[in-house]
Each structure stands twice: as structure tokens, then as C-alpha cells.
Amino acid sequence: MHPHLERVLFTEEEILERTKAIGRVLSADYADKNPLLIGILKGAVLFMADLVKHIDIPMEMDFMAISSYGASSKSSGVVRILKDLDRSIEGRHVVVVEDIVDTGLTLAYLRDILMHRRAASVKVAAMFDKPEGRSVDISPDYCGFPVPNEFIVGYGLDYAEQYRNLPYVGILKPEIYKR
């Protein structure tokens, strides 16, 4: 375990098993739809890479970079698009792939944008869901694990761009992010 963590919440093996399960469900739900999976950079990269290996239907991928955190441990409430999609989504069934749903502000903003761009449908697959952090009424359609209202890192989740490469997820010690 990394010395900056209080404890590990989910092991690499638990994360992989849950990712496989989500991939199977997505394969069934989108069997005849050729979905477009949109990975939200940077946090969702590890989840997206593992997830698509377990989707056994035709699908496409694209990426967006959206931020409401910056280098802070709390959302600023201001959502910015840092990288937009490379193609039109009009008429497409879209699955937004997120690392975590926390306040829900970014996700609500993104869902509205994608629907405005005339996607046929927009669903969300998030590896982690922190319902206690929610400030808007939105939840992922596909969820790996609910998490406590703690600052977690690993498996794509970061604090100031650190810890993303941990293959497991743990609770970051408060003294690290309250400096």
C-alpha cells in the first residue's frame, strides 16, 4: 500500500472483476446499437481501457477532457471543456465513461451538452459513485462501486495529478491534501 493512503478500498482484482461485469452488461444492453463510448480524460483512461476489452460488440471510442477541480480537492463548480469530441454524435447511442461521479455538476453539464448535440441516448458508466458528495440529481446508469465521502485516489483517480497509476483505490490521508 502507498504510504500516503489510510487504507485500500478496492483491490486490483476487485476492480477488474467489476469492470468485466459492466462490460458484459453493456454488451447486452447495446447489442445492436454500435455505441460510442466517450472516455472522460484523464481519470477514466484506466477504466475505459479495461472496460472496452470486455465489450464484445461493435463499438467506437472518443475522448473529452472536462474539468471542475483543477489542482484542488473540491469541485470549483465551474465546468470547462478542455478537449472536445473528434466526431459528431448526432443519432448515436453514447456511453460516457467516467472515473467517479461526485458532485454530479460535471456530469449533468456534459449530459446536457451531448443531448443538445442530438445523441440518440446518453448513459453513464462510472467506476465509482460518491452519492454523499452530490449537489445535483444525477446518478450513473452503470456503476462499479459506491464509495464513502472520502478523498480517494488510484485507478485513474488523482490528487494534483498524482496517484493515478496505482492499480487499486484507497483513501488519501487528509494531511496530504490539506497542506
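^ that was protein a. below is b, sequence first then the C-alpha cells
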Amino acid sequence: MPHTVAALYQFVALPDAATLAPALERVCRRLDLTGTLLLAREGINGTVAGSAEAIDAFLAALNGPDLFDGRLDRLERKLSTAEAPPFARMKVKLKPEIVTFDGGATDPSAWVGTYVAPEAWNALLDRPGVVAVDTRNRFEVALGTFAGAVDPGLTRFGDFRDFAETLDPAAELALFCTGGIRGEKAGAYLAACGFARVHLLKGGILKYLEAVPEAESRWTGDCFVFDGRIALGPALAERPDHPPEALR
């Protein structure tokens, strides 16, 4: 039976993250989930897998009184499937940031840019002067990206700050990443640096691959994911036969 995989995140103030971490792990273990969840004072991020019923119960429990009590009202989530278990164990980690960037100096609860639905992304890319920027690491970009997008050549996400210095603050930018979280952090950083025309692919590449028919897609290659499936293609189909060279 296929495993249901839920990738999720939300930037939200969690001053009680240290208290929430053990409670969240207990819920995951009770539901026999595997995967990794990161908690920080700035929010939650991670991917878990289990039966379809267990994932449904987990998502319902997240906003219950024993966990986040309604605070995850804007939770970004993507559901897909895996034929084999994508994770070996369950881990809940307390971190300074839910995506490592600059130690928490950038505040994604402020303006991060204008969200663009996957269905409207192609039209944005066709707009004259728009510069699409892939905010992922270079080995992810090597596996697949949007045609014509700029590859900043990042070894790690924090290197985006140096790349930003090469950009024109007047440029109209279209940022994207796997699920949306790095795009939001990068957008918040650019906004703080004075960039005013920043667009973000809502839900990231995964939502685009899910929502846009392959015949209309501007995506080339596969999308790297941080689990045992390695890569996904159109409609979030597993593509384990094309691991990135950097991981071989």
C-alpha cells in the first residue's frame, strides 16, 4: 500500500517551541509516522509519511488544543505518495530557524513578496523584464528547474545573501523553491534590502507540478526532494531513476 507523504511549513511566532517539540513528537509516534519536523520560534517545517488515515489525523491534530491551538491557520502543505517508506525514523528537532539562512535576523512574518498561484506562473514568466530566480542549492538546480531561470550557484541557502548583492533592486523578480519556504525567506530578505517587485511561486515547485498539466509546464527535468524518493516529476510522480550527480 502506498505511503502518504505530507510536506508542510508555516512561518508563525512560536515562543513556546521548546515545549511544543516533545508534544509534537508524541503525536507523531502515536500515529506511527516517520520523517523529520523542525520547530523554531519562527515556525514549523518538515515532511512526514504514514498511512493516509494517519496523515489525516496528524494534520487535524496540529491545530488542536494539545499542540498549536489554531496558530497554524496558514499551513502550507503538499500531499504526495511513495511506494516504499521514504524515511527510516521519526525526528522532531528544535532549531534556531526552520530553514537555515542568517540565524533568524530575517523576519518572514513581514512582507515577503506577492504570491503567484501555480496556474498564473507561466504568464508571469512571459512578462517582459521578469527575472526568474531559483533559490535552491546548485545540485537541486542541476536536476531540474524552470526554463530560463537564473541559477545563483548556491552551495547552501545562506549564500543567497551574497547573490542578492548582484541583483538590481529595481528588477522584477520571480522567486521559487521546492515547497515555498526558501522563497519566502529570500523574499523577506530582499524586501528588507529595498527590493519592491518580488513575486513568489505559491506552494513552490511541488504545487506547480501538481497543478499545471505537463503539456503546459515550463518545468524541465525533475524536482529533488529530501527523502528516499530522490526526485518527483509531473503530477508529483516518483522519479527515483535520476539522482543528481552531486549525490552519487
